[in-house]
Write the structure tokens for this entry.
Amino acid sequence: MSEIVSATKKKKICLSCIQPTGVITLGNYLGAVKNWAEMQDDYNCIFAVADLHAITVRQEPAALRKNTREMVAILLACGIDPERSLLFIQSHVPAHSQLAWVLNCYTQFGELSRMTQFKDKSARYADNINAGLFTYPALMAADILLYQADVVPVGADQKQHLEITRDIANRMNGLYPNLFTVPEPFIPKKAARVMSLQNPDKKMSKSDPNPKGCIAILDTEDQIIKKFKSAVTDSEAQVVYREGKDGINNLMSIYSAFSGKDYAEIEKEFEGKGYGDFKLAVGQTVADALKPIREEYDRLMKDPAHLDEICKNGAETASRFAYRTLNKVYKKVGFLPYGGK
Ligand code: TRP
């Protein structure tokens, strides 16, 4: 891992985290994790499984443990390489909670009240509007600022949280110069926004009322092809990308993401062909692309001790970085150093 330490000076630091929510969808894969894997060439990447964030909504403890380990296996199977990147579990690096407390004291009630995710989630989980749900952005800011991250790949739903992270960083830098790197959002050039196969005006989600609308990245070839065969299209029978053709547009963007073909090439390929052929081709392409991921995942899950070892190594290296920043923060805010030094 020392190469990460020495390379830090050359490459920019990219950080992102994912909550252990069970299996990820094709939407999460194309919108986030696939890009993370590709960013490893150009950035020093840091990825964590955000289990501390997960308990802002009630979790079944055994399920949380299981989902956390599975998420590590999924990230590895999707190509996150622990030899090149840092991969760890958020709760294994206590500095995240420690910095979050400090940042809480530099974050205003008013600005947290404006977070749309807090408003949405407190409506959805009205019987558990806990303080953690409210201060969630301060913990997320801690995740990012601890590693002096330059760029943070985030989806639209997390942009506001990155904005508040920047506000907190700038505020603290105003009080204590040069404390934090102010992170930039990173919007990948080809981040596909994947819609439900059954309701193409809604984002693909594993809570889709119709399970056929959502592809999980661990679905089998059969399941994937069946779901694509029953995807909602339109009555025009023309594979062209155009406003109003939400179903076809969605399938074209998925096909494009995996095949590398642009829309014009896809239109040409399917000229004069019916939707049946097109849906089958998309389904087969997705199934072929996800197969190695599923196989690697199955292989990794057979050896949980190996997964735990990867997490342990990741947390150890992450701690070294994180405590460097935390110590600096503790000193600046005026905490008397432990042991007097
Ligand atoms: N809140 C993010 C989500 O739910 C996960 C997350 C936690 C995160 N900490 C982060 C993302 C830091 C980017 C950077 O998707």
